[in-house]
Amino acid sequence: MLLKGDFPTQEGDDLMNKLSRKDLLLVGLMLFSLFFGAGNLIFPPFLGQSAGVNTWISMLGFFITAVGFPVLGVVAVAKSKGLYNLANRVNPVFASVFTVLIYLSIGPGLGIPRAGSLPFEMAVSPYLPEYFSVALARLLFTAVFFVIAYWLSLTPTKLVDRMGKVLTPTLLILISLIVLGAILKPLGTYGVATGNYKSSAFVQGFLDGYLTMDTIAALNFGIVIALAIKSKGLEDEKAIVSTTVKAGIFAGILLILIYSILGHLGAMSGGLYGATENGAQTLTNVMTYIFGQPGAILLAIVFTLACLTTCVGLITSCGQYFATLTPKLTYQHWAAILSLVSMVLANMGLNQILGISVPILNAIYPVAIMLIILAMVNRVINGSRAVYSLTILFTATISILDALGQVGLQFGFVSTLLKKLPLYEQGLGWVIPALLGLVIGGLYEFISSKQTESVSDYLAE
């Protein structure tokens, strides 16, 4: 079953087979900007600063979870003609619950409010005069921010032009200025590796890629990319999937390039400044060293643009989905509701929202990864419901128990046993159970098919 609106289609007699190179470039740029939020801007520099001489080993792990899985996620949703349809390969009930949780947690529950509050915290709050109320300043900033985000997301068919032609190129030009400044005024040599980056740089980089949450966001953005491609006149479903793959590859290459630059800058800043508390401070050090005080202004603009593009993508994807669940509320209504609710949450109780949403995201993330992997090998496993169901069941059980443990809920012997799983200490305790579920599901499918063949042969005699 495919929920109406989950992967929108258009009827028409004039079907185009491919986009022009210009339109394909614009769609790719739009997809890049959807992924590249404030978190994507600050995590690579912090990784570089922490990994030091092991930066590139760590970056390889980071690329897998911060680029590889997100790009594959967009492709998986396109091939499946929607997130609900993809999740329905497991079970209809799972599909409904998982889809709603994905849109709520990465949307109004975390992603959108965070996108509105982060640019204020990083780019405005530190420079406010002492006499000016921080609460009032935050309210004014988020009000303007979400009005702009609402306006940009109001007409999804115009996203390609607004983001691909204006916002993303502007963001890339500003990042290019940072790169040029670093070339003209080098920071120095790489620092030393610290913490887990000393002994397990690759695994730590892999885990750091989790922090971007782009794998989950990718499952949301499938609907946005479909709308964007259709707005350019492409209606053939196979051509849409092919175009999505090309746009995903382009966005992935661009993300790897930008992440590499930011990681390199962070590694050099570690040699110059030493350890910092977070990636924002690392990036601030880099900008101040290269540009002086104007660097703070440049960084503020980059932060705001990065958050704005991601926010628009999340409002659009969530609005499109929720509109399919409530016939009386149109997409435009949902865009307004999401913008207003997110503005309120960005000003009130964001820490409480994070306290609830982050464990949910940690529980969902491994499930999203395995769902994407299964979608990529769907032909190999012949779309087996047994393989999908057992793999996701084993993965979800471990990831949910782990998430509950993070909020202080322990289950005695079960929790003790959980901690003995291979890779648990590295945050990957779900991997072996997931593979076990895949193997058991595969064996069940193989035995069932053989029994079916035997019965068919017997009846044919």
From TrEMBL:
Principal cellular location given in the protein's record: membrane
Cellular component, GO annotation: plasma membrane
Family: Belongs to the branched chain amino acid transporter family.
Family annotation (PANTHER family): BRANCHED-CHAIN AMINO ACID PERMEASE BRNQ, BRANCHED-CHAIN AMINO ACID TRANSPORT SYSTEM 2 CARRIER PROTEIN
Function: Component of the transport system for branched-chain amino acids.
Organism: Turicibacter sanguinis
GO function term, MF aspect, one: L-leucine transmembrane transporter activity
Protein name in the entry: Branched-chain amino acid transport system carrier protein
Entry annotated with the keyword Thylakoid: no
Gene Ontology terms describing biological process: isoleucine transport; L-leucine transport
TM stretches of this protein: 24-43, 55-78, 90-111, 131-154, 166-187, 207-229, 249-275, 295-319, 331-350, 356-375, 387-407, 427-447
InterPro entries listed in its UniProt record: Brnchd-chn_aa_trnsp_Livcs (IPR004685)
Annotated keywords: Amino-acid transport, Cell membrane, Membrane, Transmembrane, Transmembrane helix, Transport
